[in-house]
């Protein structure tokens, strides 16, 4: 019988202590997807406290808030748990064409922080994790095994993985198995 995941409940609760060093659930955050053209950049910067990244596959942030570039007109916004920036953003952006959707219920974050993090990720992902090719601050949508993820390098050996809640258990288990190869 499969487990039922209840909204608001961590998908990691059903893992029965399955873990490995350096693997942890990311701190709870509020997540929004923001889409819009150049005319939203200035108002968004006023609300967020930093400019949206415009360089491909880069993240920017300040004060616990982060924006991850997902496309020429799309960002994943991560803010502290419970902080809703959507009303302030909608007001600041005004009539400029945009879309702003809260996706906190849809996805969760996983932190992989260990000296061999890049090698562990390479077991399920075909990206080049050399620091020259995937530097700190880089983020991208990609596949890890069969799960679509947003992968963000936050430190030399630290990655944050944003994954849809329904794939979190699968991804966690895969990472534990991948990490066992390097134990």
Molecular structure report:
The protein has 183 residues and is of the alpha+beta class. It has helices at 41-48, 86-93, 117-122, 165-180; strands spanning 23-25, 29-36, 59-62, 65-71, 74-80, 98-102, 107-113, 139-144, 147-155, 158-164. The chain has 2 domains: 21-27 and 106-180, Gyrase A, domain 2 (2-Layer Sandwich), CATH 3.30.1360.120; 29-102, Heterotetrameric sarcosine oxidase (Alpha-Beta Plaits), CATH 3.30.70.1520. It is built from 4 helices and 10 strands. The strands form 2 sheets. It has a 5-stranded antiparallel beta sheet. A 5-stranded antiparallel beta sheet has the order 3-4-5-2-6, with helices on one face. A hairpin with a 2-residue loop joins strand 9 (147-155) and strand 10. The longest helix has 16 residues, at 165-180.
